[in-house]
Amino acid sequence: MGFEGTENLRILKEAEDIADEIWDEIIKWDYFAKNTVGKQLVKSADSVGANIAESQGRFMPGDVIHFLHISRGSLQEAKFWLRRSTRRKLMSEDKYKYFQDKYDNLLPQLNAYTTTQKQRKKKT
Q1: Residue 16: CB atoms within 10 Å
Q2: Domain count, the chain
């Protein structure tokens, strides 16, 4: 199984879109909120897509899977920071639900892509 062009990978596009939308939300926060919860949320949201992209630059299936697992961990971290931002009244419940739904939709796609890479590894 060959690699799909990174720029054509749907899960990467979705991860980038979510990260950009989170950025657009956080950029409005005050300095303290941005410097604490905001930075962590942006970094974890960006890391989801960054690790998917990095997996595409790897040749060995085990390396690809490793970076996809890191991406999944970053997704879970982003969800944690979303909860923190809502509990600390930095983000509305509606925005929180919106981003949670986005990540809840992306997670099974990421898991399925990881499974595909695991199957590729078994063939090598």
Answers
A1: 18
A2: 1
